[in-house]
Amino acid sequence: MAEQNNNDGNAFGYIPTLWITALFVGLFFLTTVVHIGQALYYKIWWLIPTFAFCGLGEVLGWAGRLWGSQQPYVLDPFLMQICCTIFSPTFLTAGMFFIFGRIIGLVGPEYSRLRPKTYAITFLSLDMAALIVQAVGGSQASAAETLEEANRGANVMVGGIILQMVAITLYVVIQAEYLVRVFKDKPIHPRPAPATAMATFDAEKLQPKATLAIAPVTGRQRVTKNIGLMLLGLVIATVFIYVRSIYRTIELLDGWNGPIITNETLFNVLDGMQILLAMVTLNVLHPGWLIPITKAEAPQATV
């Protein structure tokens, strides 16, 4: 446990525990290195500005907390960790939106209200808007000279986190509806026309005697074991991110000197651990081996 310290000048409200901050720096560094290696190995380049950027931001944030464990009365470590740990998960959710858009394309766009590209554009736009709002709030809080100004900046950051939660909630609703429609085989859009195959052939007349219609493959039949595992990974990571977002919203609304933001254990468990587990989940249940991009897709595959 950290030594509680609420004296003026200590923005944390406690002295961050050295070994815990060092452990999180090391663990986030490891999962980030693995994500970068996976992106390079599988040649999925959008994983760099999504999963890898999230990890790098978390490393910086926890490095700020490590710095704060040695200099708790210096403001810069606090600002460094509060900004980086708030912004970074936005990049992780962006990658998750990309992955689900790809699953829609593989399983069947006819079951989705949004086309894969429209889906990606919509949710990435919401994600970027949340990031910009959080950045504006972070800059206001960092430049604040009074507690009132700092609280205004915090409220703006809360707005960004809430916007991110709205995006994640919409993502969950659309994902749930999509999967229900897939497993019940209830497409929204017209299904592609079934192919036909030659059943018999008249050798003398050199023409087919009859043709046999091939039933179209349903979305449920396209959900392979690997796609199912990728969906499981997305669900698990989403739960972790959602828990973290609820915590950070309550934390900032409680104020800079409230009992939540000044509780180190809550931050370690409900922020650091949640994002770390989400990143590790997506290391293990990774799109590179579960839904790989084929050679035929490679020239145009960006989602």
Automatic annotation (TrEMBL):
Subcellular location: Membrane
Protein's UniProt keywords contain Cell cycle: no
Membrane spanning residue stretches: 12-37, 44-63, 78-107, 119-136, 156-174, 227-247, 267-285
GO cellular component, one term: plasma membrane
InterPro entries: RTA1
Membrane topology: Multi-pass membrane protein
Keyword field contains S-adenosyl-L-methionine: no
The entry's keywords: Membrane, Transmembrane, Transmembrane helix
Main subcellular location: membrane
Protein name: RTA1 like protein
Organism name: Tulasnella calospora MUT 4182
Phylogenetic lineage: Eukaryota, Fungi, Dikarya, Basidiomycota, Agaricomycotina
